[in-house]
Design goal:
The chain is of the alpha/beta class and about 130 residues long. It is built from six helices and five strands. Strand 2, helix 3 and strand 3 form a beta-alpha-beta unit.
């Protein structure tokens, strides 16, 4: 199989641009966690979220990023629902286009975070509302 992207390139990029829930939890526990951005709906955000996350839907990033994410070199992790959602990838791409240099996606999104049993903030600690 001939491909312009080798397995080495692919897996190296995955490790560089995707943060596992385990790694995020560890970084937060050590007090060195990245800025975490939740790209989901207002209802989902209110219901439950990763502790310390800020809520910026993808469509609002161009307007709000400069104010709420003022350091373009800071480590930023974005997330949406889970494996089937592309909102986090859209958010990461938008941030990179805006000049942010250290952007990653939370692997598996909020669903992976919650299913691993990590703490959540919000109105409920049960499964999040779709939205």
């Amino acid at each position: 199989m001939t491909n312009s992207l080798s397995a080495l390139d692919f897996f190296s990029a995955q490790l560089a641009y995707v943060m596992s829930p385990e790694d995020l939890d560890m970084a937060q526990s050590e007090g060195v966690g990245p800025l975490v951005v939740d790209t989901r709906s207002e209802a989902a955000w209110s219901h439950s979220r990763v502790p310390g996350a800020i809520h910026i839907p993808v469509r609002e990033l161009p307007v709000r990023a400069g104010v709420e994410l003022s350091d373009e070199d800071a480590e930023v992790v974005v997330y949406s629902w889970g494996l089937g959602s592309v909102e986090a990838a859209r958010a990461a791409l938008a941030l990179v286009r805006l000049g942010y240099s250290n952007v990653r996606e939370l692997g598996g999104g909020f669903e992976a975070w919650e299913s691993c049993g990590y703490p959540v903030e919000g109105e409920s600690a049960s499964s999040p509302l779709a939205g």
